[in-house]
Automatic annotation (TrEMBL):
Keywords: ATP-binding, Nucleotide-binding. InterPro entries: Bact_Antivir_Def_Nuclease (IPR051396), P-loop_NTPase (IPR027417), Rad50/SbcC_AAA (IPR038729). One of its GO terms (molecular function) is ATP binding. This is ATP-binding protein. It comes from Candidatus Mediterraneibacter faecigallinarum. Residues 5-155 form the Rad50/SbcC-type AAA domain. One of its GO terms (biological process) is double-strand break repair. The keyword RNA-binding does not apply. SUPFAM superfamilies: P-loop containing nucleoside triphosphate hydrolases (SSF52540).
Length: 163
């Protein structure tokens, strides 16, 4: 099982992007602020679409702060925020000989999240194996560095002490 492709639209600073993945290890390389973390967060939103039926699994939805926006400027001053809609993340997954596709979208900054699956079989499959104590589950992990930096910035310039 692997993700073949993800399509991201109006998610954070990403206007429109398609990324194809290969079986095995894939690397995202880019400068700071290029969008590597945004891609991983979009993948988290997409993968949560097939996990919504699994009890005890926290769901990562498209939040208002994930919606791409721009500031309207008039004479050098901001006159307001313009949200770019809809915000969508489409995931293409290959499992054996089967291919699955689903889209998670939010139509505007006030709307609820919508998940559209071309085939709900993959969601039912994940729900079934997650509830079977004898099944072997895939391991997916994403730990954002943003959390680490937020905690450490207050310590900048202080002397390090041995424990």
């Amino acid at each position: 099982m692997y993700i073949e492709k993800v399509e991201i639209r109006n998610f954070k600073a990403i206007e429109n992007m398609t990324i194809e993945f290969h079986q095995g290890t894939n690397l995202l390389i880019g400068d700071n602020g290029a969008g590597k973390t945004s891609i991983l967060e979009a993948l988290t939103v997409a993968l949560n679409g097939i996990m919504t039926g699994v009890s005890g699994v926290p769901v990562r939805n498209i939040r208002q702060e994930d919606i791409r926006f721009s500031l309207n400027l008039l004479g050098g001053a901001s006159t307001g925020i313009q949200y770019h809609n809809p915000t969508e993340v489409t995931c293409h997954l290959k499992y054996g000989d089967e291919r699955y596709r689903w889209t998670r979208s939010r139509q505007d900054e006030t709307a609820r999240l919508n998940t559209k699956m071309d085939d709900k079989k993959i969601s039912r499959y994940f729900t079934q194996i997650a509830n079977d104590p004898n099944s072997v589950l895939p391991l997916l992990s994403f730990e954002s560095e943003a959390r680490v930096w937020q905690n450490r910035r207050g310590d900048f310039g202080k002397e390090l002490k041995k424990s």
